[in-house]
Amino acid sequence: MSTVLTHIGELVTNDPARDGLLGLVADAAVVVEGGRVAWVGPSDDAPAADQQYDVGGRAVLPGFVDSHSHLVFAGDRAQEFAARMTGEPYAAGGIRTTVAATRAATDEQLTSHVAHLVQEMARQGTTTLEIKSGYGLTVHDEARSLAVARQFTDETTFLGAHVVPADTDPAAYVDLVTGPMLAAAAPHARWIDVFCEEGAFDADQARAILTAGAVAGLRGRLHANQLTYGAGVRVAAELGLVAVDHCTYLADADVDALRESGTIATLLPGVEFSTRHPYPDARRLLDAGVRVAIASDCNPGSCFTSSMSFCVALAVREMGMSPAEAVHAATAGGAAALDRDDVGVLAPGRRADLTVLDAPSHVHLAYRPGVPLVRGVWQGGRPLA
Ligand SMILES: [Zn+2]
């Protein structure tokens, strides 16, 4: 069964074989077959298909690829957010509040909560997402968090090194994370991550944890330079990681290291919005030749948005990105940050994951912030109900 989407006013392909960063095609059509894109081109040249769907001049872009989220949790931290908005600072230790609630939740409660958030994301155009553990912090609770996440995505990340649990010796905890916890988590995870920050884990601990993860077959990612200038970004570059996330406080040497290693800087502007911290300087990174992705970091503490459209608008307004750069970073950028070549681009052979906007162009995502512009979402060639 093939379907042709016709009269796409503006199609964002992100196809490097086409002109410009976004590889735009005006008055376009896309043929979808077997869950994949079969053909892309001008509407007038579209081949016949079993079904036709008229997009009515709207813009279509690849589904968002959200490469950073923490959806497996229980509890609510709205009061902590409210307190922060009256002047209390954000600190890494707030994570422990969520850890207590997550440990107390049943598997069914965690699963239904993740399902709810994944549906919320899908309605807003996110068709690929990464989910981390990190609110269990025991062998059992980290493994079950990842088993829950695995029901919703292949992009699961073991983040036992989120914070040292209360009343625990840090060195003994690193031994646990790199030993029995890693062994229990690895069957459910593709990636391993460390919160490398003052108050969490230092550079040597991060290296030890990522190295142990690599031995267990997990690929590394890192939370780094979110709250302070630190060594995390340079560790990520030194280890040749695919992506390092946050990158808010960067020295010139960090920017140089990212460019030289090709490590993608994943920027999470919802966090700075929700913590009233300064935004990362995307313009500086892009001008230096560093590859950039945008993700939501959806989590109950520092940033509880699931909206990639909102993050795109923030990136344009607050981080010096053009609308085209921000849309690219939220789609193809996210795919690159997950080392995926099947999503983030609309070209023959790629997954037919696409978002129809109730707008004539991608610019409206930043031009009309806060407006629910996602009119339709196709995942693996099928429209979501
Ligand atoms: Zn995070």
Can you offer a commentary on this structure?
The chain has 385 residues and is of the alpha/beta class. The chain is 35% helix and 22% strand. The chain has helices at 78-85, 95-104, 107-123, 139-150, 170-185, 203-215, 232-238, 252-261, 269-275, 282-287, 308-318, 323-330, 332-337, 364-367; strands spanning 2-11, 25-33, 36-42, 51-54, 59-62, 64-66, 126-129, 131-132, 156-161, 191-196, 219-224, 243-246, 264-267, 292-294, 354-357, 374-379, 382-383. Strands 1, 2, 3, 4, 5, 15, 16 and 17 form an 8-stranded mixed beta sheet that branches. A 7-stranded parallel beta sheet has the order 8-9-10-11-12-13-14. Helix 4 links the parallel strand 8 and strand 9 (156-161). Helix 4 runs parallel beside helix 5, helix 5 runs parallel beside helix 6 (203-215) and helix 7 runs parallel beside helix 8. It starts with a strand and ends with a strand. The mean pLDDT is 96. The structure holds zinc ion. Zinc ion binds at residues 68, 70, 223, 297, 299.
